[in-house]
Write a structure and sequence with these properties.
This protein is mainly α. The protein is built from five helices and no strands.
Length: 123
């Protein structure tokens, strides 16, 4: 579990430092404290946005699963949610890894208890 979050944080930090390097190469490098501030804001937006998007997706998918009583469909939606949330987070420049992890954690706990039918849980 922890190493997955480390991967998400590492990806966000990589994007932050890449942005600073590209700005420097194009002669627009912020200086000292400004670079740190810009990097921190970019990191918080990317990692925090992934966290928020994953949480929202996990909650909404769990609520949607409440209305379905078909084990195959519920399992398919659960599996596709990982790919879908990764694609959405990546498209809006948020941490896709963190978004997928948070979605999976919510679906595996809250979603299983609240959303999945008893028939799906037993199969």
């Amino acid at each position: 579990g922890e190493s997955l979050f480390n991967d998400g944080v590492a990806g966000s930090l990589y994007q932050t430092f890449l942005a600073l390097v590209l700005l420097t190469l194009h002669g627009q490098a912020p200086s000292g404290l400004a670079a740190f501030g810009n990097g921190l804001v970019l990191f918080v937006v990317e990692a925090g946005g992934g966290l928020a998007l994953g949480g929202l997706a996990g909650f909404l998918i769990s609520q949607g699963l409440k209305r379905i009583d078909d084990p195959v469909l519920e399992t398919t939606i659960t599996l596709l949610s990982a790919y879908g949330i990764y694609w959405v987070a990546n498209a809006v420049h948020l941490s896709a890894i963190i978004a997928v992890i948070v979605t999976a954690l919510i679906l595996g706990n809250y979603g299983q208890a609240i959303g999945m039918s008893a028939r799906t849980r037993s199969d």
